[in-house]
Each structure stands twice: as C-alpha cells, then as structure tokens.
Amino acid sequence: QKEVEQNSGPLSVPEGAIASLNCTYSDRGSQSFFWYRQYSGKSPELIMSIYSNGDKEDGRFTAQLNKASQYVSLLIRDSQPSDSATYLCALYTGGFKTIFGAGTRLFVKA
Amino acid sequence: KAGVTQTPRYLIKTRGQQVTLSCSPISGHRSVSWYQQTPGQGLQFLFEYFSETQRNKGNFPGRFSGRQFSNSRSEMNVSTLELGDSALYLCASSYVGGNNEQFFGPGTRLTVL
What we know:
The complex is a heterodimer. In chain A, 0% of the residues lie in helices and 55% in strands. By secondary structure, chain A is mainly β. In chain A, the strands form 2 sheets. In chain A, strands 2, 4, 5, 9, 10 and 11 form a 6-stranded mixed beta sheet that branches. A 5-stranded antiparallel beta sheet of chain A has the order 1-3-8-7-6, with no helix packed on it. Chain A is globular and about 40 Å long. The mean pLDDT of chain A is 94. Chain B is mainly β. Chain B has no helices and 11 strands. Chain B has strands spanning 5-7, 10-13, 19-24, 31-38, 42-50, 53-57, 64-68, 74-78, 87-94, 103-104, 108-112. In chain B, strands 2, 4, 5, 6, 9, 10 and 11 form a 7-stranded mixed beta sheet that branches. Chain B has a 4-stranded antiparallel beta sheet with strand order 1-3-8-7, with no helix packed on it. The model of chain B has no long low-confidence stretch (mean pLDDT 95). Chain A binds chain B through residues 31-32, 34, 36, 42-46, 49, 51, 88, 90, 92, 95-103, and chain B through 31, 33, 35, 42-43, 45, 48, 50, 55-56, 88, 90, 92, 99-107.
C-alpha cells in the first residue's frame, strides 16, 4: 500500500462546477496535510494546509480532513479553466519528511 | 519576501558526468528538502537538511548527495550520471518550528544524454 494514494485522473468537470479531489494515507501519525497545485512545466504551489479534523475554507477552496478514516479532500467551487492542473496531496509524518501523492490531474472544460 | 531560488534552471549532461545543483531558501527558512520528479514516479523525496545536517533521506543510491551551508543554502550533487537521472529536481524550504509548510523553488531540469 502506498503511503499517500490519489486517483490519477484525469478528473474532468465543466466550468462553474465543484471539483472534488480525494486522498487517503496510511500513516496514522501524520500531523500536517497539504494540497499543492502544479501546472504543467512548473513547480508545485501550496494552496491549502489543514491540521485538525473538519473543514477549512479559503476562497473557492475547501480542505476536509478526517483522521479516523485517514482521508483528506479538496473541494474547488466554481471551477475555472485556470484551475486545470495536477493537484498533489502531501502530508508531514514527522522526522523532517513530507510525503507526496502522485497527484490528480484536473481538467475544467469551458 | 523573495521565494526559493534554484540554479541553474536547465542542465544538459552526458552519462558518467557529475552535476551540482544549488538552492537558496526563503529568508528565515532553515530547512531545505530536495525532490526528484519524473512523469512515471511523481515527486520522490531525496533528502532534507536542517542546521547543516542531513536529518532524513529517501531511497536513492549513494550517487545522490547533498550538503547545507551555514547560511542555509543547499547543494545537491549527482555523480556518475545515468540516463534515468533525467528529471526535474526541486528544492523546498520550510520554517522549522512552524507548521511544516514547504515552499518550492522553480526547479532544475536535468537532461542526461
């Protein structure tokens, strides 16, 4: 079992819809959880961090964390074509190491 | 505040050569992590440095090494390059004692011929 699992996609949604990206992890000791956005040919950009169970909202983005079920998700409301990118789920497990999932490709159709 | 910088941005080398990549973290960030990103393997953790000491390392051969200087700048070295080393090499810095958020530099694209 991989430490961080994401559906590789592509996930295709129409413009204006809600995009839902999911991530499961295996290490119950994980402390911090992150979502990064990576455009083709660019480096990852941090868009959301979440540390406790529940929802955290920032603009059109909502991160959801459920430690009991070991999943973290990212919702993108009112999806725009500019949101088309690969979204990487990452978690800090302690010991100076952050682990990344393989990413989910999102395509927003205009 | 200036972001993470990496030099060079692009490199072309031939098999058997060695290469050194440089990373300057965000001011005040003392932890630097290095990653290799390839289309097939995604982001793979190479190693992390804090206070000039390697604190963790990933599952890479000894040809991959790194170091960190007293000003927190970091270098990574790959010796005896192989074709499979062609990748985007990313460094990320973070503020130790904070919330462990990492911020990435633009990366160095290494091509091995």
